TrEMBL record:
Protein source organism: Oceanibaculum pacificum
Domain of life, per lineage: Bacteria
Organism lineage string: Bacteria, Pseudomonadati, Pseudomonadota, Alphaproteobacteria, Rhodospirillales
Matches recorded under SMART domains: EAL (SM00052), GGDEF (SM00267)
GO MF annotation list: cyclic-guanylate-specific phosphodiesterase activity
Alphabetized CDD domains for the sequence: EAL (cd01948), GGDEF (cd01949)
Sequence ranges assigned to domain EAL in this UniProt record: 1-244
Pfam families on file: CBS, EAL, GGDEF
Residue span(s) of domain GGDEF: 423-581
Name of the molecule in the record: Diguanylate cyclase
Length: 588
């Protein structure tokens, strides 16, 4: 054990707010196992486990990490993340409350410690481990699931342990900006975690593109070489990492003028500190008779959940209930009555906030945080008002005939696609050929039917399959679609299928003579009678590859307008262009 004490050290790696770069905490990473003859830290712990020394070794290492953490000048505003080998909880020599004594010696609040439980060892069926985890919770430690998604029974651990944090394994983070399956996996976990009131940490971030993608998906925190490498030098650590904040600032500048979230809807409800005694809790409800719940925060202002008035009713209406709960020897405190509540960052867009709320069982609303600290509450009433405002805005922009999104939504989609330069997508503009002669010959009602036919075919062949990320109606016989695809040929194939179906179906809108001749006679724009072929549709496809420079929506639309002219002159009605990577600075 003395060898372990002398040979090893701890490096700290920051875990930061993915939007602001402010440091939330530091993970303690063991260094020096090779000096003891072990090829890795995992081999060291395996050896200790085999020799029945795992718990003793773990306590020694905990104290070493805690002592070093206590020397950080900004220690009181940060969390210490410490990896906990689950096998420690099953050790025959396990002794509870040893860490509390260590923390007391160094003046550290247990709420400042987050134990990371790895998925590498299966403990999903161990009753003793579950009991010990509950004990850790009762002692106010935070819990995180590490390496989420690569080990044993990940979702069962999420369900059983109800952790405060989930750390997505770096396998799913590496190259996420160019891997749709990884995006889907991470976004699904983020949505599930947020509904459960759990924060998500993306670990192993090594590039700007990975960080931006994880941020846009909704991850709360980030860790990895792109932010900072682990260091044994405490002086090298910072409370804020400006290059992360700058990325968000640049993104906000690019989106200036777009609708933001709804901070004006946020209500500040005075929170209760988790260390408040139950007399204060009852008094808070007595003084606020219309209040049915209060947010609960820790000493650093981070929300833990809410306490509902109904959770206290058994004690409120019992003859001796209030006296019993006020008795400290009874053992009940505020943290025993805290319920989980969904949490959202104040900078989150309203769509994401509504999505979180729609999946939550919580009926009160959503806790709103900034820098992971409580700033207010978005009530159910406010959320319903927000939904109503969004519905009104959508109705204003919606095409009255097809009910598809209109020009404002189309412009917003294009602007969003251009903001993320690592994102590959195809933008498609559809325009009917020979629509006016058809409309003149058969009337406006039949013309509207032709427009509705194309809208329905778009939704059926592109939208219902989930292939197109966006469908819109520019107006009249002009439509728009956006595809999140790596290769333009993927979009082109779907577009050609749609045009072929439309060409076949629209023929039934003509009379028998026109179908037999393959044309109709109508007056052109100059007032001359001439023959017009049966209606078809042309498509201009502009593909934006990943790894390009930024461009404005107006410049992109100019390029699409040129492609549309080419498409109308093409025999097959399709024109495709790919913007070269790193050469989009000026499109003319």
């Amino acid at each position: 054990m003395s060898l372990l004490q002398d040979k090893v050290d701890y490096a700290f790696q920051p875990i930061v707010n993915i939007r602001t770069g402010s440091c939330y905490g530091y993970e303690a990473l063991l260094r020096g196992s090779d000096a003891m003859g072990f090829p890795s830290v995992l081999h060291l712990f395996d050896h200790a486990y085999t020799e029945n020394l795992l718990h003793k070794a773990d306590l020694l290492l905990r104290e070493k990490a805690i002592e070093k953490f206590s020397r950080l000048p900004f220690m009181r505003d940060a969390k210490l993340f410490f990896n906990l080998d689950p096998r420690v909880l099953q050790s025959s020599d396990y002794q509870p409350k040893q860490t509390v004594a260590i923390l007391d010696r160094y003046g550290i609040d247990p709420r400042s410690v987050c134990f990371e439980l790895t998925e590498r060892h299966d403990m999903s069926s161990t009753a003793d481990a579950m009991r010990i985890i509950q004990t850790y919770r009762s002692q106010s430690y935070r819990l995180a699931i590490d390496d989420f998604g690569t080990g044993f029974s990940g979702l069962k651990l999420l369900y059983d342990y109800q952790p405060d944090k989930v750390k997505i394994d770096r396998f799913f983070i590496t190259g996420i900006e160019r891997d749709p399956k990884k995006k889907l996996f991470v976004s699904t976990i983020v949505d599930l975690a947020h509904v459960l009131g759990i924060m998500v940490i993306a670990e192993g971030i090594e590039t700007e593109a990975e960080l931006v993608t994880c941020r846009d998906i909704g991850c709360d925190m980030a860790q990895g070489y792109f932010i900072a490498r682990p260091t044994t030098e405490l002086a090298a650590l910072s409370t804020r990492y400006e290059h992360v904040a700058q990325l968000t600032l640049n993104d906000r500048r690019a989106k200036r003028g777009e609708p933001q979230s709804a901070p004006q809807q946020i209500e500040f409800i005075q929170p209760l500190p988790v260390e408040a005694d139950m007399v204060q809790v009852f008094e808070a409800f007595r003084q606020n008779k219309d209040r049915t719940f209060f947010p609960v925060i820790d000493r650093q202002g981070e929300p833990l959940g809410i306490v509902r008035e109904e959770a206290l009713k058994d004690y409120t209406y019992s003859p001796y209930g209030r006296d019993l709960i006020h008795n400290r020897s009874y053992g009940k405190s505020l943290k025993d009555f805290v319920s989980q509540c969904p949490v959202a960052e104040i900078s989150e867009d309203s769509n994401k906030i509504l999505e979180i709320f729609s999946m939550a069982e919580n009926r009160e609303g959503i806790l709103i945080v900034s820098e992971h600290r409580y700033v207010g509450f978005l009530s159910t009433t406010s959320l319903l008002r927000l939904i109503n405002e969004k519905n009104i805005a959508m109705a204003r922009d919606q095409n009255p005939l097809t009910k598809l999104p209109g020009n404002n939504s189309i412009h917003a989609y294009i602007a969003g696609a251009l903001t993320d330069e690592s994102r590959a997508c195809s933008l498609v503009y559809f325009d009917f050929d020979n629509f006016k002669p058809f409309n003149d010959a058969y009337g406006f009602r039949q013309g509207d039917r032709a427009i509705l036919l194309f809208a329905e075919l778009m939704q059926k062949q592109l939208g219902s399959s989930g292939f197109a990320g966006f469908l819109g109606h520019v107006g009249g016989d002009d439509f728009f679609a956006g595809f999140d695809v790596r290769e333009p040929q993927e979009a082109e194939m779907r577009v050609r299928q749609l045009l072929a179906t439309f060409r076949q179906d629209i023929a039934s809108f003509y009379d028998a003579e026109a179908r037999e001749n393959g044309y109709i006679e109508a007056t052109d724009r100059q007032g001359q009678k001439r023959r017009f072929a049966m209606m078809t549709c042309s498509a201009a496809i502009l593909h934006l590859p990943g790894g390009r420079r930024s461009s404005s929506p107006d410049a992109i639309m100019d390029q699409i307008a040129k492609l549309k002219k080419q498409a109308k002159q093409a025999d097959d009605g399709v024109a495709l262009a790919v913007i070269p990577a790193q050469k989009v600075s000026a499109i003319a």
